[in-house]
Design a protein that fits this description.
single chain, Phosphatase 2c, domain 1, 4 domains, Beta-Lactamase, Heat Shock Protein 90, 6-stranded mixed beta sheet, alpha+beta, 651 residues, 5-stranded antiparallel beta sheet
Length: 651
């Protein structure tokens, strides 16, 4: 109606546009085969910020969402005339400053019809439900610990599944490997899907995905036995056919293992040779470095226990090519035919591998294919069966790391940074990076302190470090100095570096030579698979923050105060920490709480300083309390060392 109460005429387009502009929800009206935008609400403009909208095709307006399915839905509605709805779809929008805006939305897209019933375009409406989703996630996080305890007592099978699946996937110099597992929502008990990646002595890796019929304790138990049989044969170098024949013999003796399907592929990262067999199982999916996809031909093998036919085929993966093995749960989704599902899987996998879908930071293409493909496909249809995806991408090996640094304490920090950068390129997890930075930091400190003990130093004393990842995924690092070996001092607060290092890594060896001392550590690198029914936690990456100490006021009106410590505590900062703590506690006579949660690197020099501070407090009668967050580097180190008469607790 107009201001005088009269009804607005149909041709009054100005008032209609003003009304659309004031709509409190997202609205986009598109027209024609290209789905050009003809009208949007003000709420839509706010979400899209400074983009050109009206008159542009929807795929151009939402170019950053092409791999996330939203623009395709407008064209789908225009072509089919059927409405489309979505609930709490997660999307990533590119902002003008280069950052990514993550939001969740509920939406409906309906056809826009002419008077004669023909389709003119589409009308999409949506609501930003990010706040409600985040509130629900926050509430879920608060009860995660209680829920985990409840699940462990209620669902023995799920715990069994976690035990039977591999604890980690190998990190190899020429291949990046990832896996994900999503249990069926219609059956609370985990089922018989499994995956495995077995590194062989020749540097090849056997990739396995299998599916035991059924769910529950029986299926999980049979899965574990079949996985053990195959892993044992493959680990000892058996041919694929021989390994499958052993599993087939087992399946013939165990009724619950009858008709288990499995796909086994042997990848040689050095030359890209991929030999595989599909025993009643869907064929592998190949995503090339150029983004093309194709399903490899099935080999015609029979399910285990049914026929013992295991022919193999061979393909070649070029650098950048990715192969994905999966179970049929990702194909047999509600409302999808198998041909439609296979085409959809290939398209979404290609988008995920190329980074055109969700921009989850820090994930490799293989990890994106395993996690994002499952998320994007399942959210449109749901799923009724377990889903397992295992992916391997052939990559160029990282060159060995070689450092030659001055034998001075100031070299410790740049060495930690170089080590962290190289480990990231090699594919190490944040937890392995944390462990190795600490271990190598201790050895570097030892080399710097004793590199020239008892000998005449050269003009430019140096310490050399060399790190290399072997073909079987074992990291070997050597640190060389030019001094003579000296047994660690048996003082109460010294000589802890080597002991700490030996606890952090798999093996450590120190060898004196005529030219100097060579310290060698070996440590196998692994990455966790994603169990998509759980929250995935990882130790935060060690940062390069500067050492900083902040005094906190006393609590409850008393004299007890606290100190908050940030950054690395090593041989260059340990003395400052010790002096500050003793000054704040008046030489150990006053109680003191030290918060180490923000410490990024706690070296043995820092541990020794804390020992001396604790000893002073013990003699002077003051109480010393050390606190650190559960997943912090300091907490991890404090769990390995013993500081007498000190209370150690969470922050």
């Amino acid at each position: 109606m107009g201001q005088d109460g009269a009804v607005t005429e149909p041709g009054d387009e100005g008032l209609l546009a003003d009304a659309i502009e004031q709509l409190p929800f997202i609205l986009a009206v598109c027209e024609g085969p290209e789905q050009r935008v003809v009208a949007v609400s003000g709420a839509t403009r706010a979400v899209l910020d400074e983009r050109a909208v009206v008159g542009q095709p929807i795929r151009a307006v939402l170019s950053d969402l092409v791999g996330q399915q939203i623009p395709d839905k407008y064209h789908e509605v225009y072509e089919t005339g059927e409405p489309v709805t979505g609930q709490e779809w997660r999307v990533h929008l590119d902002l003008p400053d280069g950052s990514i805006h993550e939001m969740w939305a509920n939406f409906t897209i309906v056809p826009w019809r002419n008077a004669d019933g023909t389709i003119r375009g589409s009308i999409g409406t949506g609501f930003d439900v990010t706040e409600s989703v985040r509130k629900r996630q926050a509430a879920a996080a608060e009860v995660a610990d209680l829920r985990e305890r409840y699940d462990q007592t209620r669902d023995v099978v799920t715990a069994l599944q976690r035990v039977l699946l591999p604890p980690g996937l190998p990190v190899l110099p020429g291949a990046q490997i990832a896996a994900s597992y999503l249990p069926a929502v219609t059956d609370s008990a985990a089922g018989g899907d499994w995956f495995d990646a077995v590194v062989r002595q020749d540097g090849s890796v056997a990739l396995v995905v299998g599916d035991v019929v059924g769910h529950g304790v029986t299926a999980a138990g049979v899965m574990g036995q079949l996985r053990a049989v195959l892993r044992d044969r493959l680990d000892t170098g058996a041919h694929l056919v021989d390994a499958l024949a052993a599993a087939d013999r087992f399946a013939r003796r165990i009724p619950a293992a009858h008709a288990t399907t499995v796909c086994v592929a042997l990848l040689d990262p050095a030359d890209g040779t991929l030999t595989y067999c599909t025993a009643g199982h869907p064929p592998p999916l190949l995503v090339t470095d150029a983004g093309d996809t194709r399903y490899l031909p099935g080999t015609g093998g029979t399910p285990l226990g049914t026929g013992a036919l295991f022919p193999v085929r061979t393909e070649t993966l070029e650098l950048g090519d990715l192969v994905a093995l999966y179970t049929d749960g990702i194909l047999e989704r509600p409302g999808r035919t198998i041909p439609a599902s296979t085409a959809e899987l290939a398209g979404v996998a290609a988008d995920s591998a190329a980074g055109r879908a969700l921009r989850d930071p820090g994930q490799s293409p293989a990890e994106r294919v395993c996690s994002q493909t499952v998320e994007l496909l399942v959210r449109t249809t749901g799923h009724t069966d377990d889903i397992t995806v295992l992916a391997a991408q052939r990559v160029a090996p990282a060159a060995p790391l070689e450092l030659e640094l001055p034998a001075i304490p100031e070299s410790l920090r740049p060495s930690r940074t170089a080590i962290a950068d190289w480990l990231a390129r090699a594919g190490a997890t944040a937890q392995d990076t944390f462990v190795l930075q600490h271990a190598l930091g201790e050895l570097m400190t030892n080399a710097i302190e004793h590199a020239f003990d008892g000998v005449e130093p050269p003009a430019a004393p140096v310490v050399r470090l060399r790190a290399e990842l072997s073909a079987v995924g074992c990291l070997q690092v050597t640190i060389t100095d030019q001094g003579r070996w000296r047994e660690p001092a048996r003082q109460s607060t010294r000589g802890r570096g080597l002991a700490l290092t030996s606890q952090l890594v798999e093996t450590m060896r120190v060898e004196p030579t005529a030219e100097g001392t060579v310290a060698t550590i070996r440590h196998s690198l692994t990455r966790p698979a994603r169990l998509l029914s759980e929250a995935v936690s990882a130790r935060p990456v060690v940062t390069t923050a500067e050492f900083h100490l902040t005094e906190l006021d006393g609590t409850d009106g008393g004299t007890e105060g606290g100190v908050h410590v940030e950054g690395p505590v090593d041989s260059t900062s340990a003395e400052r920490l010790e002096q500050s703590l003793l000054q704040r506690s008046r030489g150990g006579t006053l109680p003191l709480t030290v918060d180490l949660s923000a410490v990024t690197h706690l070296a043995s020099a820092g541990v020794a300083a804390l020992h001396r501070v604790a000893d002073r407090h013990g003699r002077q009668g003051g109480k010393l309390t050390l606190v650190a967050a559960p997943d912090s580097p300091a907490r991890h180190v404090l769990a390995l060392v013993a500081i007498p008469d000190v209370t150690i607790g969470p922050a």
